[in-house]
TrEMBL record:
<keyword id="KW-0804">Transcription</keyword>
<dbReference type="GO" id="GO:0003700">
    <property type="term" value="F:DNA-binding transcription factor activity"/>
</dbReference>
<dbReference type="InterPro" id="IPR000814">
    <property type="entry name" value="TBP"/>
</dbReference>
<dbReference type="GO" id="GO:0006352">
    <property type="term" value="P:DNA-templated transcription initiation"/>
</dbReference>
<keyword id="KW-0805">Transcription regulation</keyword>
<dbReference type="InterPro" id="IPR012295">
    <property type="entry name" value="TBP_dom_sf"/>
</dbReference>
<dbReference type="Pfam" id="PF00352">
    <property type="entry name" value="TBP"/>
</dbReference>
<comment type="similarity">
    <text>Belongs to the TBP family.</text>
</comment>
<keyword id="KW-0238">DNA-binding</keyword>
<comment type="function">
    <text>General factor that plays a role in the activation of archaeal genes transcribed by RNA polymerase. Binds specifically to the TATA box promoter element which lies close to the position of transcription initiation.</text>
</comment>
<feature type="repeat" description="2">
    <location>
        <begin position="99"/>
        <end position="175"/>
    </location>
</feature>
<keyword id="KW-0677">Repeat</keyword>
<dbReference type="GO" id="GO:0003677">
    <property type="term" value="F:DNA binding"/>
</dbReference>
<protein>
    <recommendedName>
        <fullName>TATA-box-binding protein</fullName>
    </recommendedName>
</protein>
């Protein structure tokens, strides 16, 4: 049997600039393409093209970096944002960052009988009338895997690649 393969499709990091208050009007007007409408959302939405990521930036000096495919790409985007904020006159130090979520698509190279799996494993949830995938959740981790009939899956909630690989391994062990 061919071992499952995965590809990271999204990484979410929190970004914290300490001891800084950001003027979001100035941030939005200084970052090309940034959007800020405080009546709709309390932060600045800013998209970068290289690397391709999006940021939600808040007056508190906190931000979320979304959409990177690698941790290195996210870190590069954060470095670029930090430099841009400095160029706008903000006194920001290197921020604290933390991976909050990694999402990966998984190819298990086989089909799944989701109803049979759901009947045999207590940590599997399946209701085809509500959602076409089976949800695997374990009590000892925040990682969740969605399985689909055709053998595809989505792993979410991981903080690093090791957690993704462990979750995939658990699925393979459980179902084989």
């Amino acid at each position: 049997m061919v071992k499952a393969e995965y590809e990271i499709t999204n990484i979410v990091l929190t970004v914290s600039y300490e001891d800084v208050e950001l003027d979001l009007e100035r941030v939005a007007s200084g970052l090309e393409g940034a959007r800020y409408d405080p009546e709709v959302f309390s932060g600045v939405a800013y998209r970068t093209s290289e690397p391709e990521t999006s940021f939600l930036i808040f007056a508190s000096g906190n931000a979320n970096c979304i959409g990177a495919k690698t941790v290195e790409g996210a870190e590069r985007a954060i470095e670029n944002l930090t430099q841009e904020l400095r160029e706008l006159g903000f006194d920001v130090e290197e921020p604290e960052t933390e991976v909050q979520n990694m999402v990966a698509t998984v190819d298990f190279h086989r089909r799944f009988d989701l109803e049979e799996i759901a009947m045999n494993y207590h940590h599997a949830e399946y209701n085809s009338e509500i959602f076409p995938g089976l949800v695997f959740r374990w009590e000892d981790t925040n990682t969740t895997v969605l399985l689909f009939v055709e053998g595809e899956g989505v792993c979410a909630g991981a903080k690093n690649e090791e957690e993704i690989e462990k979750a995939i391994g658990r699925i393979e062990e459980t179902i084989d």
